[in-house]
Task: structure prediction
Amino acid sequence: MTSSVLGRRREGGARRPAPGRPGSRGRPRNKAFLFLAPCLALLVLYIVYPIVFSFGRSFFDASGDEFVGVDNYVEAFGDDRTLISLRNNLIWVLVAPTLVTAFGLLFAVLTERIRWAVAFRVVLFMPMAISLFASGVIFRLVYDEDPELGVANAATVAVHDMFSSSSEYPGARPRESDGITAADGGFATAPAHGPGDLVELPLVGVRQQSMPEEAQQAVNPGTHPGELRGTVWLDASGAAGEVGVLDRGERGMPHITVEAVRDGQVVATTTTANDGTFLFADLSPGTYSIRLPAENFAEPFRGLSWLGPGLVTPVIISAWIWIMTGFAMTFVAAGLAAIPRDALEAARMDGATEWQVFRRVTVPLLGPVLLVVFVTLVINVLKIFDLVYVIAPGSSQAEANVLALQIWQVSFGAGGDQGVGSALAVLLVLLVIPAIVFNIRRFRREH
Amino acid sequence: MRKSMGGVALAAVAMLGLAACGSSEGQSSGGSGADLSGQTLEVSAVWSGDEQAAFEEVLAVFEEQTGAEVKYTSAGDDLPTVLQTKVDGQTPPNVAFLPQPGLIAQFAGQGSLKPLSDEVRALVDENFVDLWQDIGSHDGTAYGVYFKAANKSTFWYNTELFDEAGVTPPETMADLRDTAQVLADNGITPLSVGGADGWVLTDWFENIYLRTAGAEMYDRLSRHEIPWTDPSVAEALTVMRELFTEEFLSGGVSGTLQTEFPGSVENVFGDDPRAAMVYEGDFVAGVITSSTSTELGVGADFFPFPEIDGSGPGAIVGGDVAVAFTDDPATEELMRFLASPEAAEAWAAQGGFVSANKAVSLDVYPDELSRNMASQLLEAGENVRFDLSDLAPTTFGATKGVGMWKDFQDFVADTEDIQGAMNRLEADAVKAF
Result:
């Protein structure tokens, strides 16, 4: 925004000389004005003028030539993107400042009691020294979907795999033409096999190099009265090998769980040998469906789509919390240092537990500080821009959109319409004003 | 005391004034041709990283010839925004390379661009075919020199993985589907798509649409003379859907939408490849060279985007067009240089670059692969079309998070809903055209 304000200066009579020309030796009032003049000039130039200009601009069309009344406001509110931005801003305001203030309070109180408190606080404050943009780039990587890149998903996958290990043949499946159908995530044949039969189960979808080392040339076990026999093998050896036929060079798939199912009940379970063969020795006569249950083929857990449309806003908020907690902590710690120690001591003398002291004495005494920190954070959150812009990938930027980003996109994005953009900017100012007024009144009362 | 205060105020005002005067230096001293020493030119484009390094080599040639100093600024994907802001502030760069021809219309419409000088226009006439001249013009006035071209109809594949599965480069879309199936049967994920970058998806669609609907329909759709709800669009989306499946895509659908273009290339040509093919333009070669240890022409090769139902070959092209925002002699000299084969050859020799300049000798390309791409582009027949999304207004065709980019991402997320995708595209198109 700043650069456009600079660029626009030529249009208005903005570059005015500082008032207060040297004249007769004036009264104290004039003198005060003289001292204030440079600051006042800058204030008018950089803050008052742009606000007034944006307000006026919001009533003109894209070219800035034609007066369109409130059309820009109507258009802004008719745009889904504005509504999504407003919704996201609301989520931000409700969640982010509260959490940051709470964390700031927590860390301030805790660090007061430990040795090396200063070192600890410096570490917590450090993220404030990094630009939001750089932090955004860092968190974009942290939340990368690929567990080999993103720390968040690497941790998620590690935790998940502690409880359920991944299968030996992820992604393995039968060819569509082989008469084996998907069942409960696994695969099953038609219920047409009984003792004395031979069942061939060719599978594909596994790379030769990811086969277990002990896998050997697949073997046809032949038939044997009273036994249901079969082979599970990898039916894809490059371009050679005929589809659905056990060729030379094709290896059996060891360690696969095979179930014989009758009327929906598993009656027998076995596993394949290194050459892919399996057999059910004591099945009672009848027909069975041969099933390869899902556990053989479960895809490895890949973690969560942190930056997908669903989670992107909470994820960006978490990055902001990481950055701003140090800020809140510093202010709260300063407030904490100003609390009269005797109040705390008196409470402890009266037998209050540490929690009661915290809850009933510390927090109420810190109230004004917490409120100022909170309101400052609210203002800060309403203008959030860089983090959203950097962290959200293109495919979910629309879902993560916030008002400040929307202003920028509408005003300066392709086919930029600075009229609508200005209308949105005015809306943002209106949203921030209550917080500012609150802060100023508080400030006045204290001084 | 009073005096010194006044001095401070004056100094402050003076400083403000200085700051307001901004950066564009006065390029007053005349001089045609060679000697421009002491002059500074500002140039802006989207190129960063290796492309930036290569382009700075090109500028070094110009600096050596003329003595002028050229400052290059990379604006990345936000070039349109950055340029518009600078133009509004009356501090545009002397020359900018626009990635979308729609921007020529935008800036020329505002009166910010300077038409090509007669000398440069003669050079363009001589060295470029009509397609490039037409796209570099607005309302019959020539503004642009297509310095860098892109052949956006190349499928890149990992030769080792193709050998492992025993498949060869497919020639038709049906072959491509079979190839993908065989790869998948062998446990190799066939495709990697950088779906986090919306333009990758629009390029996919354009190649398919050019082949299923034909060049004439393509032109009409690019001008929005037919709606996006036309049955021909549904047909192309159906073809696209058959490849964009959970089984064929590296990382599945959700992983695809989180993968950026460079990542999709690394997925295919990295040390531990996860997919066998990646479709995009000739610039994939640059990423392979810079981000992987795979050697072009050995571990990596390309085949043209397959024909669909006897459509014959076709090509989608794109490019970066140089336009001038000032008309001083130094700028004109730079534009003349950019239209010359010399400038193009300086980059072509470094690889990762294709020129549409007929005068560029094919011998300068560093390897067989880039030579093939360049000749394919120069010899391309009638079935060559400019990137449709680049021809559209930028709000529709080339803005992150909105318009076509976003609509195609939503389509990939839910390929079942073709009608919904077409409705969203049409609604956005209506807003933008």
User: Anything to note?
Assistant: Residues 408 and 414 of chain A are 10 Å apart (CA to CA). Confidence is low (pLDDT under 50) at residues 1-20 of chain A. Residues 56-153+306-446 of chain A form a domain with the MetI-like fold fold (CATH 1.10.3720.10). The longest strand of chain A covers residues 228-234.
